[in-house]
Amino acid sequence: MSIVIPDISLSIAAPEVGLAILLCIVLIADLFTPLENKAAIGILSFVGVLILGAVAMSQWGEGVRNTFSGFYVADNFSVFVKLVIITTTAISILLSLQYVKVEQINYGEFYGMILFAAFGMLVMASGSDLISIYLGLETMSISSYVLVSFIRHDPLSREAGLKYFLMGAFASGVLLYGIALAYGMTGTTSLTGIAQALSGPKGAAIGADPVMTFALILFVAGFGFKLALVPFHMWLPDAYTGAPTPITAFMSVAVKMATVAAVIRIFFVAFPELAGKWNLLLWLLAVFTMIWGNVAAIAQTNLKRMLAYSSIAHAGYILMGIVATTTIVAGKAVFSAQGISAVLFYLVAYMVTNLGAFGMIIFVCRKDYRGDNIEDWRGVGQAHPLAGMAFIVFFLSLGGLPPTAGFVGKLFLFGTAIQNEYYWLAVIGILSSAVSVYYYFRVVMVMYMEPRGANQPAVEFSLAPSLYVALAVLVLATLYLGLFPGSIIEAAKGSVASLI
Amino acid sequence: MENYLLSLIAFVPLMGAVIVMLFFKKEKTNAIKGFATAVAVVDFLLSIPLWTHFDSSEAGFQFVQKMSWIPSIGVSYFVGVDGISVLLVLLTTITMIVAIASSYTAIVEREKEYYVCLLLMATGMLGTFMAIDIFLFYVFFEITLVPMYFLIGIWGGTRKLYAAIKFFLYTLFGSVLMLLGILALYFANLKYGTGTLTFDLTQLYSVGPNIPIGLQSWIFLAFFIGFAIKVPMFPFHTWLPDAHVEAPTAGSVILAGILLKMGTYGFVRFVLPVLPQASQLFVPFMVLLSIIGIIYGALVAMAQTDVKKLVAYSSVSHLGFVMLGVFALNEQGVLGGQLQMINHGISTGALFLLVGMVYERRHTREISEFGGLSKQVPIYSTIFAITMLSSIGLPGLNGFVGEFLILLGAFKASYIYAAFAVIGIVLGAAYMLWLFQRMFFGTLDNPENQKLTDCNPREIAYMLPMIVLMFWIGLYPRPFLARMEASVAKVVKMVNVAKAPQDTKAAALPKAGNSSEKNF
Predict the structure, then answer these.
(1) Which residues pair with B200 in a beta bridge?
(2) Confidence of residue B105 (pLDDT cuts 50, 70, 90)
(3) Residue B506 has pLDDT above 80, yes or no
(4) Quick check: helix, strand or coil at residue A327?
(5) For all residues of chain A together, what is the average pLDDT?
(6) Is residue A61 assigned to a domain?
(7) Is A6 a member of any domain?
(8) How far apart are CA A77 and CA A335, in angstroms?
(9) From the CA of A298, how many Å to the nearest CA of chain B?
(10) What is the bridge-based pairing of β-strands A72-74 and B75-81?
């Protein structure tokens, strides 16, 4: 019996390896840091993550490189996704530094779990096999369950964590079942292997088999849960409201980015032959998600919960982009590079905007005052014009109004839909996005047009420099991407060539 | 220098707004007022060369500035003015001075934010009229929503929050659908036109006739909803009375004077030349809506008991006239529509200012509260009379010239159109004269009115340019019409092309000789 030693090149997986090392350092350093100095752990993680960003960046343009026996691929797409994830992680750490003190959850594990989750996400971005993607997904999910319930003394947070865990575990099971069926039908878990099996001589028979269709449905449902697409979204408003705010921000962007990357890779690389089937499913989900996310957000009185529903709606826009990317010409699926780059750009725009919006909630929160009800923002715009304007910028961007990143992002997404003649999808999407402006601007209305109540405590913003830095960067980035999106568009376009 | 002139005009108010925001303390209201006025005056002075150096014989864009902006998707920073937009730019810069000057005593709280909003508004509106790149146009078009939302929502009347969000959402719904239309046009250019990705209007002008009529009609409808809500055309007008009544005086002046023109301007600038066959196809529909707007607006105005609401509904009627002229699709009609845009901006803007003056003194706008004012406030009454007569189109004043041209154009298109429009003119005279009679004649029996003071010098000063323009355009409209003629002729020529190809195969350029085939 001979043992085959797989060809493993650690340098190709440098971001993940680096993150694993950083994790170990953070966990060990945590042991030797007294409780009052835990911010040092946060700063250590922040610096480490920045270095990892540089490492990931250095892999740009190196071409497609496989390792771990085809379980792992490094290409421009994965680099782009990883940079978004790493940036989100870094900013979320910045947003956490002050928040954890206020909520009295200033433990080193907090940063450790964020890094664990980020590790899973990076693996997902580079997974080229259903198994490695699943491993990444589980690493990410389990760390997120812990993070969501991190405010142990708050029942709301514990409840959120439990709900998220139960639904998440169920979703993982569904997904795993889908993977098993796909493996059973095609005999492989490798994405390219599945594509070959489906396009091979017996491919048509496999594709027509109801079991394969069922597997696809399970894939859609499993990822639907993770992305919180309607009707798989029930867990999200509770989880997002109960979680520590920086974690909500982190999850709303990074989990979405990693999952979208996995969805794009799985559906576009492994299942192009079955595009007609999954595309229809996703079309329906996109419509439901955009409409319900925006309609349900109108009724919310809690700002975090409103942003949670808005994040559902944004997942709908992103899904719309994925659907619109696909056109079926003479029975064969064609994916437009422009469409995928539109999705990637939208995620970057969403990153700066949504981190900023949650950052504003963190900005106002202090001990025994969370400031996450819309009412809490009465008169804030009058008393603090600069903070008010920053919030307006984020809301404009979320609502897709110029001159912000969100506008350009929506322009690209809807451009893809129009170009590939998904007219109804575009009309439904853009009307629901117009509805969204109603609830975003209700907050603006409260901030500027309603006086602060007599019994409301005065607004005091946090004085932590880390928050000022993070929010200033996010506001400027939101405006910059809205006015000069060229470089990011080019990068997004350059990242999809290897994929399709 | 000339190349940067338009950008300078557009962005001086923005710079002013930033300076107010950063360097003025909110308690120093007089300094803020003075500075805002200075910015508006400087902006107006900067825009004077657009009048003096404008070449009337040139139909294309002048004072052009073009810079690459987002090359990967074909967006450029491309501004310029032609006969269609140059007067609107000038109207905007004048109206801004008036709007700011009329707010000194009317706005007594949160002045700093107020003047910042007004100045931001100016940049948005000026940019809208100058942009030749559709992307840039859309950006400016949307940006104007935000400061206007604040103007209504913060400094408005009792139902200001409702009016503000209604205004915002209504216009947003239209403009997002228009965005889809813009995108469809952008990709149609890839398929049927130059084959490049560009938002440059001058390039998109050539693709229009080649787009199959089916797609063209959809794009038309998308643009139609966007612009028709802005105009507002019947039945999309319901936001207007609310917004007008609740907005502060300067907000109403800007809304009526300039913001509504963004819709009518959009039709002339984008819809007619870019979608010629669809425009021809929809003429009966557009004319029908315009005529309903004219008559309905006038009838509803007649029934109002609130002066401001009356003026607001009269806007619906007047803009129906503008749209009727535009969709007559001949030179007289479009020219009249263009001139009437300016006229409406001047006379309705002035009416709102006058309503604002009396509201500031009496805190009521109920017509029944007034009566016999002509004895108490003679100067005010005189100005009101002139403005009212200009609004109903008395010969010698500006409204007459515009309405006459529109009727001429409508008559050339079909005498039925003109017949209905004449009914609107009669009704317009009726409600205005009746209003005047109820407010200014009769006995001065309300003791509150006996304490009314007449216009002060500041008020006369900011009304003066309006009055001068009313007489100038009314008595000697030549300079105004001359500046517009060449560009209007070009638009009319572009819209009257042959039928569009029915399917994608027949996407060949239509022969120039076919352009004699007109719809009417």
Answers:
(1) B133
(2) confident
(3) no
(4) strand
(5) 90
(6) yes
(7) no
(8) 15
(9) 14
(10) unpaired
Q: What is the pTM of this model?
A: 0.92
Q: Is the CB of residue A146 less than 8 Å away from at least one CB of chain B?
A: no
DSSP structural state of residue A21: H
Across chain A, which distance is largest between two alpha carbons, in Å? 81
- pLDDT-derived band of residue A162, with 50, 70 and 90 as boundaries? very high
Q: Write the residue in A382, A392, A414 that is nearest to B179 by C-beta.
A: A414
Task: Write out pLDDT tens, residues A336-393.
Answer: 888 899 999 999 999 999 999 999 999 888 887 888 888 888 888 888 888 899 999 9
CA distances from A490 to A80, A81, A412 (A): 11, 14, 13
Q: What is the reported pLDDT for B27?
A: 84
* Number of domains forming the structure of chain A: 1
pLDDT digits (tens, 9 = 90+) for A46-69: 999 999 999 999 988 888 888 888
Pair type for strands A326-329 and A65-67: unpaired
Exposure letters A382-418 (e unless 16+ CB within 10 A, then b): bebbebbebbbbbbbbbbbbbbbbbbbbbbbbbbbbb
Of A401, A433, A445, the CB nearest to B153: A445
Which chain B residues contact residue A402 at CB under 8 A?
A: 138-139, 142-143
**Chain B residues lying within 8 Å of A484, measured CB to CB:** 69-70
Unique residue bearing structure tokens 């940063």:
A111
Pick the residue from chain A with its C-alpha nearest to B152. A449
Residues in chain A with CB shorter than 8 Å from the CB of B72 are 486, 489-490, 493
CB contact under 8 Å between B177 and A414, yes or no, is: no
Q: Does B154 touch chain A (CB under 8 A)?
A: yes
Residue A446 and residue A439: Cα distance in Å, rounded? 11
Q: Quick check: A403 and B70 CB within 8 A?
A: no
Whether residue A437 and residue B172 make contact (CB cut-off 8 A), yes or no, is yes
Token pair of A31 as six digits: 């042991």
Whether the predicted pLDDT of B102 surpasses 50:
yes
**ipTM rounded to 2 decimals:** 0.91
> Which residues constitute the domain of residue A482?
14-496
Asked whether the beta carbons of residue B113 and residue A403 sit closer than 8 angstroms, the reply is no
Q: Is residue A334 part of a domain?
A: yes
Give the closest residue to B387 by CA, choosing from B468, B298, B443: B468
Contacts of B18 (CB under 8 A, 6+ apart): none
Residue B94 contacts A, CB cutoff 8 Å? no
Residue A332 within a domain: yes
B73 in contact with A at a CB cutoff of 8 Å? yes
Q: What is the DSSP string of B3-50?
A: HHHHHHHHHHHHHHHHHHHHH--TT-HHHHHHHHHHHHHHHHHHHHHH
Quick check: A449 and B183 CB within 8 A?
no
> For chain B, what is the mean pLDDT?
87
pLDDT tens-digit map of A127-136:
999 999 999 9
| CB proximity B214 to A under 8 Å | no
Q: What would you report as the CA-atom Rg of chain B, rounded to the nearest whole angstrom?
A: 22
SS3 A464: coil
CA atoms within 13 A on the CB side of B228: 19
CA nearest to B50, candidates B12, B95, B15, B83: B83
A494 touches chain B (CB under 8 A): no
User: Could you tell me if A377 and A492 are in contact, meaning their C-beta atoms sit under 8 angstroms apart?
Assistant: no
H-helix segments, A299-422: 303-325, 337-364, 380-383, 385-399, 405-419
In this structure, what token pair is assigned to residue A307?
């942003």
**Contact across the interface for A418 and B164, Cβ inside 8 Å:** no
Q: Which of B69, B139, B161 sits opposite A445 (nearest CB)?
A: B161
Give the pLDDT score at B500: 53
What's the rounded mean pLDDT across residues B177-191? Answer: 90
- To the nearest whole Å, the CA of B155 is away from the closest chain A CA by 9
User: Is the CB of A403 less than 8 angstroms away from the CB of B139?
Assistant: yes
